[in-house]
Amino acid sequence: MTDPWVALEPGADPVERVRTLRRAHEVFTQGGAVTRPVRSVVADSWRRSARAGVGPEGTARVDLTDGDLGSYRAEHPLARVMPLVRELLGTFAADGEHLLAVCDAQGRLLWVEGHPATRRRADGMNFVPGARWAESEVGTNAPGTAVAVDRPVQVFAAEHFIRQVQPWTCAAAPVHDPRTGRVIGAIDITGGDGLAHPHSLGFVQAVARAAESQLALLVPPGAPADALQLTALGRDEAQLLVAGRKVRLSRRHSEILVLLARHPEGLSGDELLCALYEDESVTPVTLRAELARLRRLLGPGLLGSRPYRLMVPVESDVAIVERRLETGAVTSAVTAYGGPLLPGSQAPAVARLRHRLAEGLRTALIARRDPDLLADWAHAPWGEEDLDVWRALAALRPTPTVRARLRELEAELRAPAGWAQRRRT
Hints:
Residues 244-310 form the OmpR/PhoB-type domain. Keywords: DNA-binding, Transcription, Transcription regulation. It holds the Pfam family GAF. InterPro entries: GAF, GAF-like_dom_sf, OmpR/PhoB-type_DNA-bd, Sig_transdc_resp-reg_C-effctor, WH-like_DNA-bd_sf. By secondary structure, the protein is of the alpha+beta class. The chain has helices spanning 14-31, 40-51, 66-75, 82-95, 116-123, 135-138, 142-149, 198-217, 251-262, 269-276, 284-298, 317-326, 330-336, 348-368, 371-379, 387-396, 400-414, and strands at residues 61-62, 99-104, 109-114, 131-132, 153-156, 169-176, 183-191, 228-231, 239-242, 245-248, 303-304, 309-310, 314-316. The chain folds into two domains: 14-217, GAF domain (Beta-Lactamase), CATH 3.30.450.40; 222-366, Winged helix-like DNA-binding domain superfamily/Winged helix DNA-binding domain (Arc Repressor Mutant, subunit A, Orthogonal Bundle), CATH 1.10.10. The strands form four sheets. A five-stranded antiparallel beta sheet has the order 3-2-7-6-5, with helices on both faces. The two termini are 44 Å apart. The protein is built from 17 helices and 13 strands.
């Protein structure tokens, strides 16, 4: 096969391929071995699905309904390009008795549209708006796997991990935020075996690229055209969008901008000095030199002094998460959380903010008692050793994988001090 991301090579018999895939799926679910002709992308996905505790008889869970779904969709950036997606893909889906689906970065379906009879069939497996189709929840499937591996992918028939989904074939491509490059969702086409063709994968990928181009032309809602966009979660070096120009900041400049973004009124030199340096011997001259370099990097008119402040509005991913938490939109807050704030930073004020933000999120997750959200956190790099979250997840979803991981963490907690101290981010 020339392209491992395409489900069927030219000339392959789809009926025979389905038979061999079903046998391979049975072998894997019973003994864990992968046999031919399972593609490597599918084999890897099956293994991830099994590690996440997905069973072949499972089904998708509906995560958002009614008003919650409507509010979440309205706020999601992909809502702004849905008219374009419908124009490019909607007619193809309806005429071919397929479904057009769009999910977020967690594999949660936001829109499912297309042929009415096909939609009714899909309802039976909860392929509906608001349902969680993440790979870690329902195993191998095109939208969930596309966001998991950040690649366009086809999933054909019995390549699906859950048997209920195996009559279907789908192709999906991830969509990225043009400012940060992060995956924000995926566009999917789902239907019959006829979609197992290179053209369907190329088509959905072209629609995803068109959506990204459209997003790049749009100013974020409610943000002035000259506003700064600061991305600092999950990265040691923040990225700043300035007048359409992406600027990668040094660690110290990242810390300074995070703090100034939180204090639009400005900070004095002494306040910045205390916020940035644990070492009291660091002199104001050192700080002034850093600020001078930052001013040259940003360009004229953006960094003021006496007090030090940013002269234009700033929207940061930290502020977005905090606003959503304050309004109780826990799912939206988790979606916007790209990871710990500047995880390598030792600046006292940044470390406090990093801890406060992570604690606020994990506390809200535990209180919410949503097993899907807890699983997302527990399987993320920053949550893999979070004992409280794993305990909450085990209480709601006591799969063998979850219980085994919880036993490991509890055993390490009982180990001698200094051997396995766990530190939450």
